[in-house]
Structures are given as C-alpha cells and as structure tokens.
Prior knowledge:
By secondary structure, the chain is mostly helical. The chain has one domain: Ammonium transporter fold (Orthogonal Bundle). Helices cover 69% and strands 0% of the residues. It has 15 helices and no strands.
Amino acid sequence: MPKLKLSLLSMIGGLTLISSSAYAGVDAEVSYILNTLLFLIGGFLVMWMAAGFAMLESGLVTSKSVSTIAAKNIGLYAISGLMFWLVGYNLAYGIPEGGFIGSFLPWSDASSIETGYSDGSDWFFQMVFCATTCSIVSGTLAERIKIWPFFLFCALLAGVIYPIEMGWQWGGGHLAAAGFSDFAGSTLVHSAGAAAALAGALLLGPRLGRFKESGEPATMEPFASSSIPLATLGVFILWMGWFGFNGGSQLALGTFEDSTAVATIFINTNLAACAGVMACAIISRLVSGKTDVVMMLNGALGGLVAITAEPLTPSPIMAIIIGGIGGLVVYYGTLLLIRFKIDDVVGAIPVHGFAGIWGTLAVPLTNSGTNFGSQLYGILWINIFVFVVAFIIWYLMKISFGIRISEEAEKLGTDKAEVGVMAYSIRD
Length: 428
C-alpha cells in the first residue's frame, strides 16, 4: 500500500509539472515538429478542397459538361503545383520588405530549426492556397470555355499573378507595410480568384440561351444542375477543408496560446458557415416563397469566405453576424450578376468576390489593430491588379486562338466536344 501511495503521488506530481510547463511552451525542436504538423495537416485539408470544388461544380453544371469539369479541376491542381514550385513561391516570399515583386526562381528547401517549421511544409501549405484561387475561376466559366486556354490561364495565375499579389501582404510587401490585414485570404485568395473569373466571364459571354433578347434570364430548365446531392457533397468537403484553410493560417501550434487560437478559429469558421446557410434559407423563402437549396449551399461558402479575413478575433456572436451577412451578400450579389447579364454558372463571383470583400472590410470590427482605410486600400490594389492583368491575358488569348468553344460544340456539350468522355449515359 505505501508503494502504491508513493506511485500515485509521483504520477500526480509529474502531471502537475507537465501541466505547468505546458504554459511555458516547449523547446525549439518540439515547436518545429508541431508547427510543421499544423502546416501539413492544414495543407492536406486544403488540398481536399480541390475535390470539393470538383464535386460542387460537377453538380451545378448540366449533365453534358460533368466530365469536362473533372478534367479542368484535376488539371488546374497539377498546373498550380508545378507553377508554384517553378516560380510562384519565390515571387511571393522573395519580395523585398515593403516591395512589389520577388524573384523568378524555383523553390528550394532551406529548412532550419530557427525558422520554426519545415520549409517543405510551408511550400505545400501555400501551394494549395494557390490551387484554390484557380479553382474559383473554373466554375464561373463552365460549359463554354476551351480547356487548353483555361489551362494556360491557370499557369499564369498560379505562377505569376497570384504569387505577386499575395506577396504584397503575406510576403511582407507594400500592403503589409500599409497595415492591410487578411488573415487567411478573403481578398488575397478568394476575391482575387473572383476578379480573374469576372474578367474571363465578361470576355467569354454567357451560355447560349442563358438570357433572352430582352435581357431577362431564361428559365433554368435547360440549365438544370446535374446533381444537387453531388453539389451538396462538394460544399461539405469544402466546409471541412476550410478548417485547414483558416486554422492552418495561425502558422504555429507549439504554444498554449497558438493551440487555443486554432480552436477558436475552428469555432468561428463553423459558426460563420452555419449563419450563411440560414441567412440564405430565410431570405430565399421570404423573397421567392421557396427555400432555395443552391442558395443555401452558396450561403455556407459565402459565410466561410467572409470569416476567412479574420477568424480569430471575433466573438462567436460576431462570427455569426459576419457569416450571416456573407450569405446575404451572396444572395443579392447573384441577383446583381443576373441583372447585368453576367453568366456565373456556380455563383463563384458573389461567393468568393463579394463575400470576400465584405469579410475583409469587416476585419476592423473585431481587430483593433486594423482600420477601414487600409483594408479598402488593399482590396482595391488586389482586385484591380488581378482584374486588369487577367482581362489582358483573356483578351490576348481570345483574339489569337480563341477561348470559347463553337456554338455547335456548346449545343453538343463540352463532354463530347472537349474530352470525349460522357459522365452520364442519360442526358437532360
């Protein structure tokens, strides 16, 4: 019995020491391991978002374009990986402090325990963010874009355009110096991708028959979604991946404070998405008398995009408000695009663009270290830069070798015309 008592006392004492030392942090090597692990786990969660985008887009296009969506999404992910290794990473992180552009050099491993994490884990984490930016463009231009011009644009977006603008803040460039803050990329990733998509949509034009001669939208029957369950699965995959997107952007896990912060980010991210869903469910019911499931799906994404600019500092109530407004922005933003006859097949521009801008502007509401002037300054810089450069690239491709499939091919369907593989044997 005395030995048992002694053992229990020893265990209690050991646990007490462990508990007290935890608040003091861990040594450099353990911190390096934990931080690297956060990057890797966050990275493969964000990579899983590529599957979410593929499923969402495949579900929302017509059944004659599903295989093409699959080809575009796996292609853009591969291109993003290659281009971000070749030039993208160093264009972003080789930037001089307060500068505008880094160096055109391939990534190389410079891992050191002093950096606090593996260089390779950081490269992977940043690369999947780059791929997300390209994924946003895909859905907007679906069912009428040629595959290979789209791939060429993705190479330039992933290798040059995105790395330059994200380096302006995350690489210590001029927006960071100006006080702009975007925690995980509401503007740097999401509205930037939407700006590139908008430029392409304007030059590409709407799908055949999408709008009447009067300008009114045509009935949706000819453009019926191929699979709402598939689109729903895509949103749930994206929702799960977003915990890596936002949680991983804490960039550290080796202290009590960092671990607590990651958990807070998870909670706020989830609450914002929930609020976005319900905001769209309520407003669609009130306005149209129907509870629009597609709006609910995009409302979830709008809430997620909105909270991404600052998922750490809001209270749970504020996270709900930010996400709910994000959902409303998506709903009315979709109506705005229709009014201007801009055909965004999956609603990527209101989801990622409009909700991303709202979320970035909302940062000063909860983060006292920011201000609306700096936030607006960053939003304008990034969106104008990406839109103008993307518009020029799309235009040059349009006048040289074309970006849109023929009218005959569009009527036939991109699956037959572009990839030669039909996703479904039964057509609309």
